[in-house]
Amino acid sequence: MPGAVVILLIAFVVIFISSALKIIRPYEKGLVERLGKYNRTEEPGLVFIIPMIEILRRVDMREQVIDVPPQDVITKDNVLVTVDAVIYFQVTDPVRVVYNVSNFSLAALKLAQTNLRNVIGDLELDQTLTSRERINEQLRRVLDEATDKWGVKITRVEIQKIDPPKDITDAMSKQMKAEREKRAMILEAEGIRQSAILKADGEKQAAILTAEGKAEAIKRVADAQKYEIETVYNAIHSGRPTNDLIAIKYLEALTKIAEGKATKIFLPLETAGILGSIAGISELFREIKKGEGAAENE
Q: Which residues, 6+ apart, have CB-to-CB distance to 98 below 8 Å?
């Protein structure tokens, strides 16, 4: 009989210790209730509680996800679209998430569905399809404000897909095709325009360069002629020619001009002096001829 008592006592001690010692994992926190009332919060590790007087509730503190099933939502322009999303959340206060809401996952799901209808209902179809980031942020902010009293932080909300009706999808596909063709035609026309502009600029620059080349050539010819005239002029004046020599050269020039087809001769301004020199030369020729005739008579 005493041996049976000892065995029962040992069994009782083992059961008591196993019931009193609890292990809380690193990603959890423990809420200890004593006689049905919240007593304390335990950190991860080995925890001792009083069996049958205290109980331990474990709360997962990791980030978790709630899948919002697809649902039909009507946009502002009365188009029915199918939308589904996922919600990421993390518990920040284990006490409030346990005692302020009975089923947080279900409450968050229903809250997300309701606010998703409200957010999508304020947007037209085009805005709904192109403003996914805006919808995500707006829905996250609304849910975060609503779940703050539950000790939960909504970290992000992601819209997985937005499916409009098939006829709307076909119309949008045709519209996108038309837009792409329009952009292609605009780009092609712009390319032709740029090509024409570049060609015209090239021809303009070529004409300008040709004109500048001709002008430069004429300028160089004129400079050469100027240099030639100045050289002859300086050579003549440095030799100090007499009126008789000038008259002889002038007669030679007249002879060359007479051999041409010209019908008019323009005389220089100083014609009187030159003609006087010519008259003197003629008188000199007559005297020479007279002398030669007298010599022959003798």
A: 31, 57, 59
Q: Which of 48, 60, 56, 57 is nearest to 21 (CA)?
A: 48
Give start and end residues of each alpha helix (H) in 36-124. 94-99, 104-121
Whether 183 is covered by a domain: the verdict is yes
Asked, for residue 2, whether it belongs to a domain, the answer is no
* Cβ neighbourhood burial of 42 (10 Å; 0-12, 13-18, 19+): buried
pLDDT computed for residue 90 by the predictor: 92
The amino acid at 197: I
Whole-angstrom Cα distance, residue 295 to residue 11? Answer: 184
52 Cβ neighbours under 8 A, 6+ residues apart: 19
What would the pLDDT profile of 213-266 be if each residue is shown by its tens digit? 888 888 887 777 777 777 766 666 666 666 666 666 656 655 655 555 555 554
Which of 124, 144, 164 is the last residue in one of the domains? Answer: 164
Summarised one tens digit per residue, pLDDT across range 125-172 is 888 888 888 888 988 998 988 888 999 999 999 888 888 777 666 666
**Residue 174, domain extent:** 169-240
Do 69 and 160 lie in a common domain? yes
Rg (CA), the chain: 58
Q: In whole angstroms, what is the distance from residue 192 CA to residue 205 CA?
A: 20
Residues 196 and 128 reside in one and the same domain: no
Q: What's the whole-number mean pLDDT along residues 104-129? A: 86
Output 264 or 15, whichever has higher pLDDT. 15
Q: Are residues 156 and 223 in the same domain?
A: no
